[in-house]
Amino acid sequence: MASVIAKRPLLVVAGVGNGSGTGAATAKVFAKAGFRVALIARNAQHLEKTASEINAAGGEAAAFPISAYTSSALISAFDSIKSHWPASSTTLRAAVWNAGYGVWKPFLQITDEEVGEALDTNIRAAFAFSRLAITAFKENELNENGKRGALIFTSATAAWRGNVVTSAFAAGKFGLRALSQSLNKEFGKDNIHVSHAIIDGGILTDRSRENKNDPAWEQNEDVRLNPESIAKAYLYLANQDRSAWTWELDLRPAHEKW
After folding, report:
1. What is the distance between the alpha carbons of residues 23 and 14, in angstroms, rounded to a whole number?
2. Which of 3, 73, 82, 238 is in the most buried spot, having the most CB atoms within 10 Å?
3. Within 10 Å of residue 7's Cβ, how many Cβ atoms?
4. CA distances for 9 relative to 39, 72, 127, 149, 158, angstroms
């Protein structure tokens, strides 16, 4: 009797930055948990670096760079992922939308191009990514947690409330939150778990280190978020069983004012 080879779970994460933030940390945490990892972002060099780090640590990752967060580019990336890891050996079980575009300016200084980029990345591209992920999830059998897949959106406090310089950013994040809530309600009956993560506070990344230039802030875990801690929360969401799962999760450091 021929042996049955178990399929490996796959995570697709879109939005990896320079490899020091939430997207890369999520990829590394899921890889340690046994997931194959497909990385999607615009900077091929940073993608390859992150994939190499995961592979060197014993995981399995591949980079799928795109020129822009458009529907056609994302469709092409998912097609490449399917070719790289055929359905006979791999099942897409988790997808994380970590891409975003932010502009923080007084309202009258924001350009039409900036409004378009905010809406295209935070809403239109998120729609396209969600459609691709959910379509794949619907083909899956239930796993040991009673779900077909987990779709997670990285978001921000601006999804809850606007502020004096966040009109374009908040509009995009409000839309992202509405999308995630709608998908949770529509596809929960199919055992597809959709979550929205509010990240409320500064995240320790290479960029934030450079911008703040404040060693005390870097070392104080009471006042900033650790990307790996966010990633562990995402793995927790992906592993929740169908009897009790989360739609919205808000994460902040202990001393964050809110």
Report:
1. 7
2. 238
3. 17
4. 14, 25, 23, 10, 32
- Rounded to whole angstroms, how far apart are CA atoms 30 and 11? 7
Q: What integer pLDDT is reported at residue 201 of this predicted model?
A: 85
pLDDT digits (tens, 9 = 90+) for 173-216: 999 999 999 999 999 999 999 999 999 988 878 788 888 888 88
Backbone torsions φ then ψ of 87, nearest 5 degrees: -60, -20
Query: Taking 50 as the threshold, does the pLDDT of residue 164 lie above it?
Result: yes
Query: Residue 140 corresponds to which amino acid?
Result: N
- Rounded CA-CA distance 195/172 in Å is 17
Name which of 188, 187, 173 is nearest 250 in CA terms.
173
Mean pLDDT of the chain: 94
The amino acid present at 102, given as its one-letter code, is: G
CB atoms under 10 Å from CB of 114, counted, come to: 16
Residues with Cβ within 8 Å of residue 97, at least 6 apart in sequence: 14, 15, 126, 129, 130, 151, 152, 153, 154
